[in-house]
Amino acid sequence: MSEDAGREKDLRRLLESLVAGESGLDDVLEKLRLLQVSHLEDFAKLDLYRDLRKGVPEVVLAQSKTDERLAAIVKRLLEARGLALVSRLTAERAEILRETLDGALEFDYEAAACTLSARAVWYRFPEEKGCVGLLTAGTSDIPAAEEAVLVIRHMGCRIEKAYDVGVAGVHRLLEPLTRIIEARADALVVAAGMEGALPSVVAGLVDIPVIGLPTSTGYGLGGDGTGALYSILQSCSPGLVAVNIDNGVGAGAAAALIARRTGSARLQSG
């Protein structure tokens, strides 16, 4: 019996027990959560319906996984959900994965961010709700920002972005920031390395949540991203929070959750 057939049989048994009054609703819900996990031998337990439960799709970290295990995980996600997102994937490994996957797929690899979006032909993007603004202090911060883009886009949010607008030439910031606010962005992701000043500056100018994304770009002491992280954490600008160094996935997920909730409220209010 295949895993899918076994899961369908378990689901039917659960629903029958609920209808018959043999199981309570809370007990059935708890067991349904367990059925959402797909086991791949002894190396992976995939949270297939994370996007339905939490609003954030699964993102597979390619780093430290063998090519064979990565391919098995991506194949299973595509079979079950029609979508597989991968981060920290080199161009060479992306090509190996492309050759391994079967069937008609849309395969989008972003070399700058080392991210992959593989989609079955039947996959449909979520309904658009909300808008996320995205800024980087420098060009070197773009890879982390584009990692955030991967998640934001697949959570159904519109994206307004501007790159290389940091405090070394802060006059560059005003025009794109004005454009983003006029586009009714519901949250902002601001990526910065070096001393990490840009997120604080932006947070002092806008009335929406700002998620500071510190990056590991810079020189000498603190150039591994700790300087930028400390600056964001120590900021006196209210409404600014931080994710970990180079955590574009986390920044994108947080911003998109905010934007989708705000976007839903806006649609309901007319």
Describe the 3D structure.
- By secondary structure, the chain is an alpha/beta fold.
- The protein folds into 3 domains: 35 residues; 88 residues, 2-Layer Sandwich (Translation Initiation Factor IF3); 135 residues, Rossmann fold, CATH 3.40.50.1970.
- The protein is 43% helix and 20% strand.
- It contains 10 helices and 11 strands.
- The strands form 3 sheets. A 5-stranded parallel sheet has the order 8-7-9-10-11, with helices on both faces. The protein has a 4-stranded mixed sheet with strand order 3-4-6-5, with helices on both faces. The chain has a two-stranded antiparallel ribbon with strand order 1-2.
- It is globular and about 65 Å long.
- The chain starts with a helix and ends with a helix.
- The relative contact order is 0.11.
- The N terminus is likely disordered.
**Highest-level CATH class of the largest domain:** Alpha Beta
Cα-based radius of gyration, to the nearest Å: 21 Å
Portion of residues within helices: 40-55%
Say how many strands there are: 11
Shape: globular
Please identify the structural class as seen in this structure.
alpha/beta
CATH topology of the largest domain: Rossmann fold
Quick one: biggest sheet?
5 strands, parallel
The structural domain count equals 3
Give the strand order of the largest sheet, numbering strands 1, 2, ... along the chain.
8-7-9-10-11
Order of helices and strands: HHEEHEHEHEEEHEHEHEHEH
Distance between the termini: 50 Å
CATH architecture of the largest domain: 3-Layer(aba) Sandwich
* Arithmetic mean pLDDT: 86
Number of helices: 10
Poorly predicted parts? 1-7
Estimated share of beta-strand residues: 15-25%
